[in-house]
Task: inverse folding
């Protein structure tokens, strides 16, 4: 696995907080910064990666969504759209694969140090292409079965996402829990025989040291960086992180299980259907309007269980604070 001066990896943070400046700052501090490809076009991704490259001589990673189209209940989806009618402007629910093929072609022609997947595993042929181009390939897993399958597909390392992690569950399906806590997942994933990157609830050096002692080669942290000045975190989310509260897992915003700070929207729409990215597209205009209005009660406030420890510090200082 890629050798780092400090065993700290920036989680991708797709959908707003991810910026080239944040990724570069983490890499400049001795860690590995990721540029999130999620929700971007291939051209937008290329521009962000090139920008990050101008800001750091360190390694740069890119995370891709790997989505398989699954059956959804059209009646449940329509009923949910009706339920949301009074919340704000709505979009058209639909499936797309987040332009995976175009992004893979970009990363083969303009390689980065690491390419990781979320929501699924790259096909073995794609893994081989990325490796021939010079990239390591990491796969996000949430169970021993996913760890074994990723190893068999040819992954170089496994990002083990514990139940404590903020944002979308990286599971290869959207089944209801139970979700393994990070320590238990690391114990089960070791059998796959690959280097492990521990993700979920790591907010300080003590948490990082515990993950490394449990067998991880590095820790991947997202929530710890949300208040950094380099992050693109919205003003209402920054305020919610500072205000405190509790987190829970919800499908209300995107149709896929994700952990965030509990707010009014989550409480009102606890029975959202499993339909991703259909519900994401449905609620995107609503969330954009609420974000612009500074309304933290109608936007997704993705955060891990340890979010109260997040600090508004430059990313380099956060990397140092996370280093055991």
Result:
């Amino acid at each position: 696995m890629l050798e780092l001066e400090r065993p700290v990896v920036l989680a991708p943070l797709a959908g707003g907080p991810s910026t080239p400046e944040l990724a570069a700052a983490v890499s400049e501090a001795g860690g590995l910064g990721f540029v999130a490809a999620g929700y971007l076009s291939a051209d937008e991704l290329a521009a962000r990666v090139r920008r990050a490259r101008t800001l750091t001589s360190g390694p740069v990673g890119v995370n891709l969504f790997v989505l398989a189209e699954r059956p959804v209940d059209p009646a449940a989806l329509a009923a949910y759209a009706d339920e949301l009618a009074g919340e704000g402007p709505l979009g058209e629910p639909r499936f797309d694969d987040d332009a995976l093929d175009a992004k893979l072609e970009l990363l083969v022609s303009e390689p980065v140090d690491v390419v990781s997947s979320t929501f699924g595993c790259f096909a073995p042929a794609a893994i081989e292409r990325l490796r021939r181009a010079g990239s390591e390939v990491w796969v996000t897993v949430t169970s021993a079965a996913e760890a074994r399958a990723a190893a068999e597909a040819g992954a170089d390392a496994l990002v083990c996402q514990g139940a404590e992690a903020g944002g979308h569950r990286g599971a290869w399906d959207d089944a209801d829990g139970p979700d393994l806590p990070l320590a238990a997942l690391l114990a089960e994933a070791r059998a796959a025989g690959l280097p492990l990157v521990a993700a979920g609830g790591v907010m300080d050096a003590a948490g990082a040291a515990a993950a490394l002692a449990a067998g991880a080669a590095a820790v991947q942290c997202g929530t710890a960086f949300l208040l950094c000045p380099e992050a693109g975190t919205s003003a209402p989310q920054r305020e919610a992180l500072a205000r405190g509260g509790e987190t829970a897992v919800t499908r209300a915003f995107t149709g896929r299980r994700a952990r965030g700070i509990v707010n009014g929207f989550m409480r009102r729409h606890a029975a959202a259907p499993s339909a991703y990215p259909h519900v994401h597209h449905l609620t995107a205009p609503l969330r954009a309007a609420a974000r612009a209005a500074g309304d933290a009660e109608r936007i997704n406030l993705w955060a891990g269980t340890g979010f109260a420890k997040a600090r508004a510090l430059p990313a380099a200082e956060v990397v140092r604070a996370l280093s055991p």
User: Anything to note?
Assistant: The CA atoms of residues 121 and 149 lie 8 Å apart. The chain has one domain: 8-322.
